[in-house]
């Protein structure tokens, strides 16, 4: 009996140790959690958005915070893209917590859509389902046109629209989904086109738009002679970010290309197959090697083939997408601090501030057909305190933004937050 008791105590001790070890690692929220770990430097920019914002104020030692950790991550994944979900260690950053009236842990604050003032404190069940229901039920559909339910009414919306285009959601349900309502509130999208919702559409409406299966999201424009509507259905995953990118691309006349990009499944690792090797010739081996290159955890000096190793479409993915590469071109910005602030986002930080690294970067940009030699020299050679943002979202498309002057760390943090939310327009390059 004594032996059994001793054994039981040993098992209990091991269970307790295992529990303690796993919960200690709960904070801060890591990569892939869907939760942005915030600091005083990133907090204001994070809540400056048209989207709803939910922030968990926690203390790492708080038992209730640890118990809620898994549910909060589950909530973040459920509303990814349509709701900004963040967390702040209010034990470390107590002054910021006090500014928002945090008196205990955990405290959850909620900012309504378009409201930048005082947040509302969430005081209901601390479960993923309850929090999601609370936020989504509070979203207004006032920015969505719901009265255009006939073919003629839809044409009328198009004719009145500034660009003679509109976004349309046809659904068998009568209620506008929160994700669509939030998208209609985006300043960039709202300026580009009106958003229309048609619940239980008639056969005439579906036929006029060439849409059969419901629900279906589409970009619609008026035909050249004004007699009919031309719809381009969205064929990707129904989620905020891919749909927003689709509509933005369509608004600039690049609808078909972006539709292909959004529907293409991005594997975690892209590797070359034997057939692809034969077709690609001498380029296949470098691409296969690049796909196996491990991504850096922090800031690393830029070296030869850095674009292929870390930033190319064939490189390893972060959260299912090619990363946004942030390449330092001067000494003003502290990329180490930026990396710490955005450790849960798909960003990679490379340092090309040294003259030798800069020349290697220029050569790689030319070799990748992103810039010509003259363009690379003109845009980057004279930059002494700037940053290059680069994303290669598919094999044939790269997007860049050269920030010639970054005054300080705070300015860089603001730019990166804007880039992650799609508020920085990047130049598109077709790779040959």
From TrEMBL:
One of its GO terms (cellular component) is endoplasmic reticulum lumen. Pfam families: Thioredoxin. Residues 18-140 form the Thioredoxin domain. PROSITE patterns: THIOREDOXIN_1, THIOREDOXIN_2. Residues 1-26 form the signal peptide. GO terms for molecular function: isomerase activity; protein-disulfide reductase activity. GO terms for biological process: response to endoplasmic reticulum stress. The keyword Metal-binding does not apply. Keywords: Isomerase, Signal. This is Protein disulfide-isomerase A6. It comes from Strigomonas culicis.
């Amino acid at each position: 009996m004594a032996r059994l008791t001793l054994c039981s105590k040993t098992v209990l001790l091991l269970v307790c140790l295992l529990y303690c070890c796993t919960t200690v690692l709960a904070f801060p929220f890591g990569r892939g959690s869907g939760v942005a770990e915030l600091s005083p430097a990133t907090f204001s920019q994070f809540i400056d958005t048209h989207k709803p914002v939910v922030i968990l104020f926690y203390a790492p030692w708080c038992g209730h915070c640890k118990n809620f950790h898994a549910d909060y991550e589950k909530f973040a994944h459920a509303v990814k893209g349509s709701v900004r979900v963040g967390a702040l260690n209010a034990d470390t950053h107590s002054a910021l917590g006090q500014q928002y009236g945090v008196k205990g842990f955990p405290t959850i604050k909620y900012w309504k859509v378009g409201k930048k003032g005082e947040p509302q404190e969430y005081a209901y069940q601390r479960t993923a389902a309850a929090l999601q229901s609370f936020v989504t039920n509070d979203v207004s559909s006032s920015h969505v046109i719901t009265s255009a339910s006939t073919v003629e009414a839809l044409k009328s919306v198009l004719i009145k629209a500034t660009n003679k285009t509109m976004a349309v959601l046809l659904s068998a349900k009568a209620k506008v989904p929160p994700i669509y309502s939030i998208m209609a509130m985006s300043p960039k999208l709202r300026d580009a086109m009106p958003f229309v919702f048609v619940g239980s559409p008639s056969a005439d409406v579906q036929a006029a738009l060439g849409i059969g299966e419901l629900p279906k999201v589409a970009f619609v424009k008026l035909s050249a002679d004004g007699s009919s509507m031309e719809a381009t259905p969205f064929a990707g995953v129904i989620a905020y970010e891919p749909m927003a990118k689709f509509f933005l691309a369509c608004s600039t006349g690049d609808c078909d290309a972006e539709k292909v990009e959004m529907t293409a499944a991005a594997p975690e690792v892209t590797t070359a197959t034997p057939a692809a090797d034969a077709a690609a010739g001498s380029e296949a081996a470098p691409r296969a090697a690049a796909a196996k290159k491990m991504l850096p955890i922090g800031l690393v000096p830029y070296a030869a083939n850095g674009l292929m190793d870390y930033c190319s479409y064939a490189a390893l993915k972060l959260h299912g997408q090619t990363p946004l590469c942030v390449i330092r071109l001067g000494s003003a910005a502290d990329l180490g601090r930026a990396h710490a602030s955005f450790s849960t986002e798909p960003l990679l930080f490379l340092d090309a501030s040294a003259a030798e690294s800069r020349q290697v970067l220029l050569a790689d940009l030319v070799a990748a057909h992103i810039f010509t030699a003259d363009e690379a020299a003109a845009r980057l050679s004279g930059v002494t305190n700037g940053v290059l943002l680069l994303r290669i979202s598919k094999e044939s498309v790269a997007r860049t933004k050269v920030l010639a002057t970054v005054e300080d760390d705070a300015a860089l943090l603001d730019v990166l937050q804007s880039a992650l939310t799609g508020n920085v327009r990047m130049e598109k390059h077709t790779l040959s």
